[in-house]
Amino acid sequence: MLELRPDCERCGADLPAHLGGAFICSFECTFCAQCAEALDEQCPNCGGELLDRPTRAPDLLAKYPASTERRHKT
């Protein structure tokens, strides 16, 4: 199951699990749309392709909550 990380690793923007606009690679590195575009949809950590992260339905989000661990490094 995806962690659905709460923020962009590059700029720190909030990325709620119930909304679109997040991009992930196969290792779940997570970026906002603006950063993914600036990175040419290529993960700077592993070199993998950044793809649209799926959203989680509200009822399932309550049962299987998203991660709260922020990954942005200042």
TrEMBL record:
It comes from the Bacteria. InterPro entries: DUF1272. This is DUF1272 domain-containing protein. The lineage of its organism: Bacteria, Pseudomonadati, Pseudomonadota, Alphaproteobacteria, Sphingomonadales.
